[in-house]
Amino acid sequence: MSSSWIVVVAVLIAAFGVAFVVGRLMTLRSGLLKGAAEWPALDDSDISALGLSTSGPTVLHFSADWCGPCAGVRRVVDQVCADLPEVAHVEIDMDAKPEAARMLSVLSLPTTFIFDADGRQRYRASGVPTAADLRSALQPLLA
Description:
Elements: H1 3-27, E1 33-35, H2 44-50, E2 58-63, H3 69-83, E3 88-93, H4 98-103, E4 111-115, E5 121-126, H5 131-142
Parallel strand pairs: 2-3
Antiparallel strand pairs: 1-5, 2-4, 4-5
């Protein structure tokens, strides 16, 4: 094998390696809970428009009829809310209420939020969160 072929193979391997690392970094946060310090607080009219509870935490998730993974989020959230009756659950159809999705900068489905009793956004998850992740995010709000 000539040295030019070795260089071509080395360049291809390096390109695939870089593409793998970039793809991994882009999908790393999918489905992970993120702190809400970067999101603005909602005012009272927004809280009532979204249907958030004022007596305890609320799990709010955006879905649509055409979204396959949204059914998985619904099952997980229903399971967690059944175990924690003081947690309210609100589901918003993004096609029916696009203004709510714009207000919270929802760019992909499914997206799940956790708000405290004062209507402050505490966590946000893109993708399908696990029940354990939701419970761990809700526990400090229930104390």
